[in-house]
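Exercise 7. Predict the joint structure of the components listed below.
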Amino acid sequence: MLVLGIETSCDETAVAVIKDGQKILSNVVFSQWVHKKYWGVVPELASREHIKIILPLLTTSLEEAKISLKQIDGIAVTCGPGLVGSLLIGLCFAKGLSYSLGKPLIGINHLEGHIFSNFLEHPELLPPLVSLIVSGGHSTLVYVKDKGEYKILGRTRDDAPGEAFDKVARILDLEYPGGPSIDWIAQECKSEGVRFPRAYLEEGNFDFSFSGLKTAVAIYLSRLSPQEKEKQRACIARGFQDAIVDVLVDKILKAAFEHKVSQIAIAGGVANNSYLRERLCSEAIKEGLKLYVPSPILCTDNAAMIAAAGYFHLQRCEKSPLDLNAYPRLSLEQRV
Ligand code: KG4
Ligand code: ZN
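Solution:
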């Protein structure tokens, strides 16, 4: 069974073809650089970029997969959460294909797609598990009871971790996107780094909050001269990164313990962070947990993960109607 995946929920336009839910035949991602000078995604620009690139991307994806459009058995498309204008581009495109080819359409929750990035890459991974989705727009801790059965344990109350990385990188005069820049420069710090507060919220709470940390970095920087800022940049980056990673690691371990699972997984752009991966890897060994992490191309937004989730739902004979809408605030626990 060949499933075409389409993802346009934010600033990545992506088209992929996967075979039998497991084999990636093509996975083409276009990251929109138009937002770079604004230090964040501009929704209207994102929609316009999606419109321009989606058709050429489909052609490239089919060529790479060495198949024709007629061979596709089903079309999976992200229908939320995300930017409404961006979601609508992918959705309308997918509906057109579904209608003209006479092939089933399935709307996929973007966060379920991220969860499936680990199922796609690690076929041996079977639920139950605890999964942490960390990106520029999300910070969601999920108990995956089974494929398709999710319980949200916690989410961010303000900034997502990727958003905090991007904002702090900006005040540190680093490059956009901020996550990779901070990850990189933090490795130059040869001390413990500057100590910043960790926001744990109330005991037993799995929600996250990162905006206070961002403010703490801004206040710290406001007291430094330009020379001191330059001198301390790497250790400020390291201290900030440590504060985020400490909270993420602590909460995923506690959630695994509370839900008596032996497997944990991370996904989303921030899952590329080298310190997060390193810390989770050593803590998982210490706690006797098995850690699953997707390779970098499957961490950031992509359509292979959407096609993988689509395959799962199509196999269960689920399909979406052609009047399927875009849901900017779609919850993982909600089926459309
Ligand atoms: O999943 P993604 O590609 O798109 C969203 O759905 O947001 O994630 C992008 C986010 C950006 O905020 C970027 O700064 C962050 O992931 N990111 C990282 C790293 N690589 C990307 N954050 C920390 N460390 C990294 N190595
Ligand atoms: Zn994402």
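Discussion. The two ends are 23 Å apart (CA to CA).
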